[in-house]
Amino acid sequence: MFGRVISGIAVALGLLGAVARADTLPLPADLVDLTSPRGERLLQAPDALEAYVPLSVHFVTQKTQAYCSVASMVTVLNALGVPAPASPEYAPYRTFTQDNFLDERTDAVLPRSTLAKQGMTLDEMGRVLALYPVEAEVHHAGDSSLEAFRAAAREHLGQDGRAMIVNYLREGLGQQRGGHHSPLAAYDPGTDQFLILDVARYKYPPVWVKAAKLFAAMDTPDHDNQGRTRGYVLVRVRAAAPTPAN
Q1: pTM for this structure?
Q2: Fewest Cβ atoms closer than 10 Å to its Cβ: which of 98, 151, 158, 175?
Q3: In the prediction, which pLDDT does 45 show?
Q4: Can you tell me the distance from the alpha carbon of 34 to that of 53, in angstroms, rounded to the nearest whole number?
């Protein structure tokens, strides 16, 4: 009973501020809606809440249809407690938003005008994240394997100072349509399913998806990234430099 109460609280936090569900698109039969009874049960897997709760508290909806990468990075950096820039609308408090995240440094990687038209590639995301005090380890699915992806995800999810963002082709999950980024939030070993916190909450809810299906959707060429496959980014808070001995 206690686990179900905690699960219900976490789900409520994760969906706070979401748009009306009537506007979302129908899900393929093999994807499990997090807010369904089955989806909530999957969230009660051992250690699942450890990764899900901090992300759900900071989970945001992408502000435009090209900002899935930005919303994913904002969610992850806030969840990891990375020092945030000033945010005029919340002063004196600091937090990452989709407005203050982009600046002259990120423009050197990908101009905002280009981002607004075509979004961001996996490699561009890695370079943008590296501008902040985190390590961003980019993995292309074509250079990896299902087993390596599953092992890396299980190691990262729920660990302090770690998070993960996946880049996949929606059609590979039976969804509509194109490449997409979202944080990965939990794993259920019993069914071998991962939870994607879909930042396009006006379009799809968070869903559980089989590991093999998700990997296949990542193992697709991105023509905006010189044909390289999509994949995932392992994000770690950068360790502080040791203090020199006297």
Answers
A1: 0.90
A2: 151
A3: 81
A4: 13
